[in-house]
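quick one
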Amino acid sequence: MRYNHVIKRPSLTISPPLVDSQPPETRLTRRRLRACHECDWVSALPPLGSGEKANCPRCAHTLVKRHRFPAQRSMALAVASLIALIIAVSFPFVSFSVSGVSNRIELSQTATTLIAFHQPMVAIAVIMTIAVLPALYLVGVIWLQYGLLRGRPQPFSRDIARSLSHLVPWMMADVFIIGALVSLIKVAGLAQISLGISFWAFCAFALLLLKTSQSLDADWMWFSLEGEPLAPEGTRTGTTAAAQNVTGCPTCGLINRLPANGKARCSRCHEKLHKRLPHSLQRTWALLFAATIMYIPANVYPIMTTTSLGSSSPSTIIGGVVQLLQMGSWPVAAVIFVASVIVPVGKLFALSWLCLTVRRSGELKAQSRTRLYRLTEFIGRWSMVDVFVVAILVALIRAGSLMSITPGPAALAFGAVVVLTMLAAMTFDPRLLWDTPPLRAPRPGRAATFTIATKESVDG
Ligand SMILES: [Zn+2]
Ligand SMILES: [Zn+2]
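structure w/ zinc ion:
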């Protein structure tokens, strides 16, 4: 019953992997409707060729991106990046030597050494974001695509496919590479550094992981897994989903009818559905407030302490930047300054501003505000650079009294800031920016009474 909408072409004889051989638009005659996840506008997907994408006509958010042979491509990339990860965790990562004392570390030691210094939370954050979550993601992709390529989805495919999209923002292998480069430049003048096989394997892994997540064609994948159920009867394009009491699924894109209580699950992927994320503004405010509080200890306390020949010098985030400037390595200082100061502070201000002005957003303003929201969502994870720098340096620089680095309390506080601001961006519902009626009250003047009345009715 699931594939009763599939057009079977008599001239085309396709061997078993029928499920994945043709994109959805060549197998369906009816229009496929989508509600934009960022502005709630309902539109019909056009037929797409490989390499093409369909953008929302109202806010330009990408609704669907079509790839050629998506299952084969992401299967190949996922296998390759899993192999690279296995190599990266099995060999030495990097070694250093100073005055005859040397130390060689493996990738996992960047997390385990932190536990020895009573920083288990930072250690968990490091190992989860650079290895555990990416590994789970890759195994999930391989499991899914293997089923699709065989023409018979594997068990739990639906739950795995739904979970994959939630993992993506928390995979930070690419940020770790930047952290590793910053750490190496930081100590290059003080000691001799040599890169191990694992370092290069990890670079390959980070690149392949990025390619794998980009290669997933979620639209095609969900179509192959569960078919394309009809949108609720009477759903129209050219207006918002909320106005029709329907909503677009954030994971698989299908439009679902919302019951009176506003709580539902997607009929195709079983994701939770909401007209608007519940208590979006309150939750975002609470998370922003918590992040602001955590940003104080993150800057007041030292992020790491360097002990050299018996004298210890603790350094804060800003102190580290100043130190780098004095050493003359201003590009690294700029990276740390942007990642640890500009990005988190900018994000706190940007999200607060979006929350404050959300009810005063017209159609034109909504467009620029949505762009700002996308930017804050995109850059958030790059703040983790400094936490990774601490993890790498603490593990690597172990030469007893000659030179050693220990983590400071600011590492945990700063890690919390990054996580809290990322969560704040996730709980903010950009559709709220588009909800204000575009009709604005006229300027105060001759029709003063009218203005006030209109304003009240708009705000209320
Ligand atoms: Zn849109
Ligand atoms: Zn869904």
